[in-house]
Design a protein that fits this description.
By secondary structure, the protein is mainly α. It is built from 17 helices and no strands.
């Protein structure tokens, strides 16, 4: 028998057996998998309401105090809250995002801030953020061909004012990358091309070359549903992995790129290649060095566990599931009808395949494989 024919026959047999193996695996997870034997929390403790642990109580109290003060007309508390971040640009951006949410419900205090301190770059940046956010609220989710024409027209009409506001903020705060994040976000919607976009990206990179939210917005620009292609998006994401400094979650941008591919192409998405597996190893190594309090880290762990498992690195996936703990309120599990079941199945598969790649056929080793179903 020619070798090519034999390979095709073996491949065909394996394809026929795959659903049988998967069914057995699901049955084992459902009936016999005990997560505690693999260093994970029992299924009864799984919580689909959150991606990770809540912020420390003192942080929550601080944020609530800022919101309460703003809604009572006190803009100075908000100004001080942002200013205390100094030039930790990612943290400063997180604080501005909180203020944007507060202003989204009532922005009278922001108007007072801008009138009383017209040269304040934070107030100007927040104003630009709010304009972009309101434009996107009008547009709504979905691809361009799914957005009603009138909403799209209103969306497009609002964008030039947002870009102008961000440019004004950049003039007031020349060291701050925040206005440049707003400009990059707006440029995507305005369909900037070539040097028009690259100039904005260079402006951000000069000020904060590892800015996480700036990279996320640029990734959206380069994805195929906006202004780029799959290849351009993946090239950008791989550069983020290579350039991520120790302690930064920046390498996680690559996981968002894989998620974009999955959303766009479904089951045929090219997310299980040798190249992807190699880069995921680098992402795993980089995120292991990220600061434990990085706000992006909990959600990134979920994506990392998922794509490590999809690429057959079950030992590494299992370690992520241990680190995640009881939280399962994040993508990709929340894309399913039952996030808890999806999460439980994924970590069960990681546990089973990390051991020896086979399911136990007899009662031998029952203590190892578990009896309770979690």
């Amino acid at each position: 028998m020619p070798r090519a024919t034999a390979v095709r026959m073996i491949s065909g047999v394996m394809n026929l057996l795959a659903p049988v193996h998967k069914a057995r695996l699901k049955r084992w997870v459902r009936t016999r998998f005990d997560p505690t034997e693999y260093g994970m929390v029992p299924v009864a403790m799984l919580d689909p309401r959150r991606a990770g642990p809540p912020l420390p109580a003192h942080r929550i109290e601080e944020m609530q105090a800022v919101a309460d003060a703003a809604w009572e007309g006190d803009w100075r508390t908000a100004a001080s809250y942002v200013d205390r971040a100094g030039e930790e640009w990612d943290e400063r951006w997180h604080r501005l995002e909180l203020l944007q949410e507060i202003a989204g419900q009532d922005d009278d205090w922001l108007g007072e801030w801008r009138r009383n301190d017209p040269d304040n770059g934070d107030a100007a940046t927040l104003h630009a953020q709010l304009l972009v956010h309101r434009a996107w609220e009008i547009r709504g989710p979905g691809y361009a061909n799914q957005v009603p024409a009138e909403r799209m027209r209103r969306f497009k009409r609002m964008l030039p004012a947002a870009m102008e506001a961000a440019q004004h903020a950049a003039g007031l705060a020349p060291r701050d990358p925040g206005p440049w994040v707003v400009m990059i976000t707006t440029a995507r919607a305005l369909n900037y091309r070539g040097m028009r976009f690259h100039t904005l990206w260079e402006g951000l990179a000069e000020r904060a070359p590892h800015h996480y939210s700036g990279h996320w917005q640029a990734l959206q620009y380069w994805c195929a549903k906006w202004c780029g292609t799959d290849d351009q998006m993946m090239d950008f994401a791989e550069r983020a992995v290579r350039n991520a400094p120790e302690g930064s979650p920046l390498a996680g941008i690559y996981l968002h790129a894989l998620s974009e591919l999955t959303e766009r192409h479904g089951v045929v998405a090219p997310v299980t290649t040798a190249r992807v597996k190699d880069v995921l190893t680098e992402v795993d190594r980089s995120l292991a060095q990220a600061r434990g309090d990085a706000r992006e880290l909990p959600r990134l762990r979920h994506l990392l566990a998922h794509y490590l498992g999809e690429n057959g690195d079950h030992e590494a996936a299992l370690e992520q599931f241990r680190l995640i703990g009881p939280w399962c309120g994040a993508e990709p599990w929340t894309d399913k009808a039952d996030p808890v079941a999806a999460f439980q199945l994924a970590r069960g598969i990681a546990a089973a395949k990390a051991a020896n790649g086979k399911l136990p056929d007899t009662g031998e080793g029952a203590a190892r494989w578990g009896r309770t179903g979690g």
